[in-house]
Design goal:
The complex is a heterodimer of chains A (264) and B (213). Chain A contains nine helices and seven strands; from the N terminus they run E-H-H-E-H-E-H-H-H-E-H-E-H-E-H-E. Chain A is of the alpha/beta class. In chain A, strands 3-2-1-7-6-5-4 form a seven-stranded parallel beta sheet. In chain A, strand 4, helix 7 and strand 5 form a beta-alpha-beta unit. In chain A, 41% of the residues are buried. Chain B has 213 residues and is an alpha/beta fold. In chain B, 29% of the residues lie in helices and 21% in strands. Chain B has six helices and eleven strands. Chain B has helices at 21-31, 90-101, 117-130, 139-142, 144-153, 164-173, and strands spanning 5-7, 10-12, 37-40, 49-51, 59-62, 76-82, 104-110, 134-138, 158-160, 178-180, 189-191. In chain B, strands 5-6-7-8-9 form a five-stranded parallel beta sheet. Chain B has a three-stranded mixed beta sheet with strand order 1-10-11, with helices on one face. Chain B has a three-stranded parallel beta sheet with strand order 2-3-4, covered by helices on one side. Chain B is globular. The model of chain B has no long low-confidence stretch (mean pLDDT 91). The chains are: A alpha/beta (264), B alpha/beta (213).
Chain lengths: 264, 213
């Protein structure tokens, strides 16, 4: 049953500035377009690139997300400096790294998750990105965080005062049980909001599946609203007024739309 | 209720040089199993076609309305109009006039810029209730999001000018059976849905030594 558009109130759009730390990643998740394995890793994002970020651009974003692939080149403290640097000219919310990336630093640098989270808090990050929570209902790859590991990070983040959203990937023709499985895995996690990510398969190993249509998100959002009290955000690849209208009618609370991207 | 979604491959021959039109047209039909709809600027016969100018005894695809003398009166007409906004819209007057003077085969709606989806939906719903003819929407100008919503909402609506892969997906999402269709005498051909396989856990292993090198 499709929602009635005439009663719909358009949900707000949050413009997201993306800062990509590196486009190289060893993990090779099937749904991610950073998973291209290259012989020689590119350098990570330089401080100069963040420095050259036009203050006008920063003011155009309601939210800045710092994220990227997993690599072994720059240490975690380097990224703390980048966030500090970014914080100098930007007062809005900054989402930095994800449980998946923190786990990587936890393993490669042998630092505790609590230590890493305290560092992020000190540098000025307001929240983590949802990366890693995709694996809760469906284990995408054996290399990704397990459910228990993700929950460990979620609890530590809640204790450190850093909020953490969760994200659900919606593949084309999503199975009936997708939302129920995901919400039951999430039941114990102290999450701030729930993000719906329609699968964008271009450049990934799932390219043959094609993309999820926006219309397929309607039953997903309705089910989430029915089963839980989380605020639902939808990640879009660009402004899509038609889709935003019918997704708002279905119950979406806000939309993330990318405005600019800084990458190495 | 007929929920069929029609895939009607359509070829507009007006952009091709006159000497090659017949060849392009036959090649197009051959590529779709001898099915398909041809829009032609002249009066050569095709199994399923509409002429872009009024021709006696044929179906006229009217993009621009004009007065037609009785000696070349077409047998029926297809009208392409922007979605009417409000009762005083010129498109509505045109449609009622076309209905008075000719047999109306179908109307093809295009979307004017800056028309929001809720107003678009109201107009399309009103037209579906008040006109007793087939309504096609132009996928290009409607955009895939609006077209997908309307196709799922109104099972008698058809779409043209959009990719075949998308149409297949839409038949699946809106749960409408897909048919290869044209206006020739042949029966519509049912198109089976492609199988969907579950997304399994990715078992690709990293190259040996990748994590530790």
């Amino acid at each position: 049953m499709l929602p009635d558009l005439q009663k719909a109130k358009m949900a707000p759009v949050l413009r997201v500035g993306n800062i990509i730390t590196t486009r190289v990643c060893w993990m090779g998740c099937p749904f991610c377009d950073l998973s291209v394995i290259r012989a020689k890793p590119d350098p990570g994002l330089s401080l100069a690139a963040v420095d050259n970020l036009d203050p006008h651009l920063a003011s155009q974003a309601d939210l800045i997300k710092l994220h990227g692939g997993l690599m072994l080149k720059e240490p975690f403290d380097y990224w703390l400096q980048v966030i500090r640097h970014l914080r100098d000219g930007y007062a809005g919310p900054v989402w930095a790294f994800s449980p998946q990336e923190l786990w990587h630093f936890h393993q490669s640098e042998r630092r505790s998750i609590r230590d890493l989270l305290a560092g992020l808090k000190w540098a000025g990050a307001t929240a983590l990105n949802p990366g890693g929570s995709e694996s809760l209902g469906h284990r995408w790859s054996s290399h990704r965080l397990s459910e228990a590991e993700w929950l460990t990070v979620a609890e530590a983040a809640a204790r450190a005062g850093i909020s953490l959203p969760a994200a659900l990937i919606v593949p084309p023709s999503p199975p009936e049980t997708l939302v129920d499985n995901y919400l039951s895995a999430l039941a114990k996690a102290p999450i701030a909001s729930l993000e719906i990510k329609p699968l964008r398969s271009q450049g990934t190993r799932l390219a043959k599946l094609g993309d999820a249509e926006m219309l397929e998100l309607i039953p997903i959002i309705e089910r989430v609203k029915e089963q839980s009290s989380h605020a639902v955000s939808v990640r879009l690849d660009r402004e899509r007024p038609d889709a935003q209208l019918f997704l708002s009618a279905a119950g979406a609370d806000r939309f993330f739309v990318p405005t600019w991207t800084v990458e190495p | 209720m007929n929920r069929a979604l029609y895939w009607m491959p359509q070829c507009d021959l007006s952009s091709f040089p006159e000497a090659f039109r017949a060849w392009y047209g036959w090649r197009f039909l051959r590529a779709h199993g001898q099915r398909g709809h041809i829009l032609t600027p002249s009066n050569e016969p095709w199994p399923s076609s509409e002429t872009l100018v009024p021709v006696k005894g044929q179906v006229w695809y009217a993009r621009q309305w004009q007065k037609v003398p009785a000696r070349i009166k077409p047998s029926a007409v297809t009208v392409e109009v922007p979605v009417p906004q409000g009762v005083s819209d010129a498109g509505l007057a045109l449609l009622s006039r076309a209905q008075e003077s000719f047999a109306l085969r179908r109307i093809v709606l295009t979307r004017p810029q800056n028309l929001t989806l809720e107003r678009l939906e109201t107009s399309v719903a009103t037209l579906l209730e008040s006109l007793g003819v087939a309504i096609w929407i132009d996928g290009q100008s409607f955009g895939s999001d609006a077209a997908s919503y309307l196709l799922a909402r109104y099972p008698s609506l058809q779409v043209t000018g959009i990719s075949e892969e998308w149409l297949g997906r839409m038949a699946e999402i809106a749960d409408r059976p897909l048919y290869l269709f044209d206006y020739s005498d042949a029966e519509p051909v049912p198109i089976a849905r492609p199988p969907r396989f579950p997304i399994l856990e990715d078992t690709n292993m990293l190259p040996p030594g990748w994590r530790t090198r």
